[in-house]
Fold this protein.
Amino acid sequence: MTELIPDLTTQAGWLPLAFMIVMGLAMLAYVVLDGFDLGIGVLLPLASDDDKDLMIASIGPFWDANETWLVMGIGVLLVAFPMAHGVILSTLYLPVSLMLIGLTLRGVAFDFRVKARADHKAWWNRAFFAGSTMTAIAQGYMLGELILGFELSLFAFFFSTFIGLCLASGYALLGASWLVAKTSGEQQLKAIRWAKRSVALTAIGVGAVSLATPLLSEVIYDKWFNLNNLIVVWPIPLITAVLFVVLWRSLGRLPVRLANDNEYGIWVPFTTTVGLFMLAFHGIAYSLFPWLVIDKLTIWDAAAAPESLLVIFVGAAVVLPVVVAYSIYVYRVFRGKAAALEYY
């Protein structure tokens, strides 16, 4: 492992690592923040017409800002790691295309459904669901391919497709947990039921990724099962299991509290689900580092020239705090319960 990491005191050493951290955090922010509004799109067919409007309203102020993180993550991959960008996106051309079609479809549907005539609105709702589901499954498929080192085989196809379905379930869990905190009454109780249905497949997906990652690479296997690393890495699955228990207990207790007009703990499902995503991301990042393509391409192999990275780093140091500040401001302004959108 150490022979793969160059001297981090040089620009050629620390700049690629810095950009890898920025790209990783941007993708984590995207998965968590855009994940809940993708999840609401996945859940949309389960709701009544009035509930659909409230569900869309709950993400209305946020969803555009959430997708900014995806643009930043892919932008960093393009400019900082051009070799990896070419390898990864050329291999994943079809799922990336499907993801972009899904994002476009849900964006158009989001804007058109609020002003569509009554007989057209149902079609835009279906388009929003289709775009959200397509995007979620495509992203999960790409995650599966990343874990498998972009292997092209029948097993890789079915494994990656399965991970896509599990990620869609995870997004549904995020979306339902968001609705638990942002809505009230019957819609809130429905969201609790939707969240409970999504927990099992999400847990299976986390388990599948956790098992597949070390088993498919000797290097990753040694990182997880080396006795010297046990104290560092094994709290990750243990804490993950604890969070699943806390999430399930919270979803079981909330209906009783809500029946007594007690909303204590309504944010617990969402925060524990976010914690699960963060731990899963941490486990994948630990497993893959320093590889961008497992056993083939490290972040230093794929990085642009240090001189180019330094110029980009200055720009990122200006842009990143602005994006963070804007996101915090939006969530602060629109905190509280969701209300139906009205257009005049």
